[in-house]
Amino acid sequence: MSRAAIAVLAGDGTGPEVTAQAVEVLQRVGELFHHTFTFQHCLVGLAAVKADGEAISVDTLGACARSDAILFGAVGGTLHEGAGPRPELALSRLRTTFDLYANIRPIKPFEALDLASPLRSEYLKGTDMVFVRELSAGLYYGHLETVAGKPSEIRRRGAQLEAIDTLTYTESEIERVVRTAFEIAGRRGRRLTSVDKANVLSSSVLWRRVVDRVARDHPAVTYEHMLVDTCAMRLIRSPADFDVLVTENLFGDILTDAASMLTGSIGMLPSASLGARRTEHGLFGLYEPVHGSAPDIAGLNLANPIGTILSAALLLRYSLGLHREAAAVETAVEEVVQAGYRTADIHYCDQSESTVVGTRELGRQI
Amino acid sequence: MSRAAIAVLAGDGTGPEVTAQAVEVLQRVGELFHHTFTFQHCLVGLAAVKADGEAISVDTLGACARSDAILFGAVGGTLHEGAGPRPELALSRLRTTFDLYANIRPIKPFEALDLASPLRSEYLKGTDMVFVRELSAGLYYGHLETVAGKPSEIRRRGAQLEAIDTLTYTESEIERVVRTAFEIAGRRGRRLTSVDKANVLSSSVLWRRVVDRVARDHPAVTYEHMLVDTCAMRLIRSPADFDVLVTENLFGDILTDAASMLTGSIGMLPSASLGARRTEHGLFGLYEPVHGSAPDIAGLNLANPIGTILSAALLLRYSLGLHREAAAVETAVEEVVQAGYRTADIHYCDQSESTVVGTRELGRQI
Ligand SMILES: CC(C)[C@H](C(=O)O)[C@@H](O)C(=O)O
Ligand SMILES: CC(C)[C@H](C(=O)O)[C@@H](O)C(=O)O
């Protein structure tokens, strides 16, 4: 039996609805497997901007620091260039505070939802990949603060304006995320694709060198280098060819969003953001669905909670080391979907229906 | 009747075969429409490296400068980290020498080839978009030369190495390509999507401002801003929603390759790279198929010449101002495909057969 403290940052839009379902599932897992999970709910995003004047307060960051993992819903509202800090800053703040450098996104279409995909079934068949996106460096975060040697600004240049952004990677920033990817590949299909643009970028040249070096410690994993433009093609043309992919921050942002569309059901996809910080039985992490806050359907009981529930499964696995429990949640979800529990529209199933079933199926699992 | 000088840079792999077919089509257009086209063939790529020790010689650049347009095949061979300059340098050299800042890629699947696409027909239906990719700035070209304030290098940082690349855009670099995109949109469906990452990059913030400013000169065109990650999703989920897209260099590299896969027939796709330099009746430009040199099938008479033939059509339109002639070539290609002239494998049709038919159909056109 284990104890764990989980910070719940439900956020905006559909965030609270989907997070509530994931918390219920975790509570049920606690009962069935005899664990004690405590949940601390904190404000984040627009709600935090309203209450505290910032997207995430120092108190909330402190509460996260005292927990084993963060369960995150979604932030952001309908687009408005209004006053106050952007709600999305909360995510960047959490990523930098806890140095969450590895964003893990498993992409595996549900067979039962085959027809929801824009891809023909024969192209989709066998797709089961995990993206490992570097999340702490690259072109990101220059805009948040002035970093020496890493300008991100708009400045005068003669009679006109010029904008500059800076892409940097140190060897250690590359190495740690590449190690994570090799480890994940070692526990799966033992194939790793490292994605870069080495024919144009110096950072990609360094990236390749580090990958070649780390690969020597993982002789059981077959790996390859692939250019990002080629990868964008292959993801659509032959997604089933991939096992684990690792890439830098912005390439990862673009490619994971493209790949998640293959499944046709972005509402079902989970993610984990991990760093070096350890918990008693694993790594500290932030867990959130891949989808956004969808303000247009917020509060209507229409949002698909499965992305968040599967994120909770990743939380059990990576932060709490509860592998059996994680698999139980995943199997329950799979069975519920297989059993046809969803509305006619694949992307949004009736929340109360899927919850009831999720919990019941979980019970059956054990 | 007009005269035009065309530099033919056939290059490596299947480049010579496909270029030869496009030249034949241009010659036939000349006969039928009473124009005089002269062709100057020059070495480029691996062949040039062998002959001159560089991917493209100053003499060849000079020959290009004296012509109205460049018809380009493909460069590069089987991957080898061998001695000598990389054949791909020829393309960068041409882009910078002639300041070819706008890369135009029309993406319109052939109805007859519907089944070649990984996308289900109902998603693909109605897809007809034109990408305008900025081709002169961004993260590119720092590696070619040392540009003040734009480092691209691997350097020491304390005990380890660090790599840096620099993304820059001036207002005028953004403005000229955005103008090109608005003009193209004005002659098509009057909808423009500008793609950026304004929630992270300063260069994207400047990009948006310039787009908003240029838009005022084009009140008839409806435009929107879209984040690059969202765009990567929408291209797969609802490609038919797009008309014209404009974006910075690297985003364009990734997104156009992804989008070209939608058609399932990359061998059929043409491209044009245009700059400010004018010819008598249009803009100087470089025209090349989207596909690469495919060394594995080089010389086997298997390569699909249609991407290059359609590039020749773009050459007629943009550089020579011969709109009727360009449309005739496009219609001929469409009819040939419609009539089923291709091998069982959609991607590679028998070259001699498609040539014969291409010419005959062209004849019928007139
Ligand atoms: C909100 C934005 C800064 C963020 C990113 O690009 O990292 C988002 O797109 C994501 O992928 O989580
Ligand atoms: C060869 C490479 C530098 C080039 C690019 O990225 O521009 C290629 O991918 C292209 O799209 O023409």
Automatic annotation (TrEMBL), chains A, B:
The lineage of its organism: Bacteria, Bacillati, Actinomycetota, Actinomycetes, Propionibacteriales. GO terms for molecular function: 3-isopropylmalate dehydrogenase activity; magnesium ion binding; NAD binding. Binds 1 Mg(2+) or Mn(2+) ion per subunit. Its EC number is 1.1.1.85. GO terms for biological process: L-leucine biosynthetic process. GO terms for cellular component: cytosol. This is 3-isopropylmalate dehydrogenase. Belongs to the isocitrate and isopropylmalate dehydrogenases family. LeuB type 1 subfamily. Transmembrane segments: none annotated. Pathway: Amino-acid biosynthesis; L-leucine biosynthesis; L-leucine from 3-methyl-2-oxobutanoate: step 3/4. Its cofactor is Mg(2+); Mn(2+). Homodimer. Pfam families: Iso_dh (PF00180). Keywords: Amino-acid biosynthesis, Branched-chain amino acid biosynthesis, Leucine biosynthesis, Magnesium, Manganese, Metal-binding, NAD, Oxidoreductase. It catalyses: (2R,3S)-3-isopropylmalate + NAD(+) = 4-methyl-2-oxopentanoate + CO2 + NADH. Catalyzes the oxidation of 3-carboxy-2-hydroxy-4-methylpentanoate (3-isopropylmalate) to 3-carboxy-4-methyl-2-oxopentanoate. The product decarboxylates to 4-methyl-2 oxopentanoate. Residues 5-366 form the Isopropylmalate dehydrogenase-like domain. Signal peptide: none annotated. It comes from Kribbella antibiotica. SMART domains: Iso_dh (SM01329).
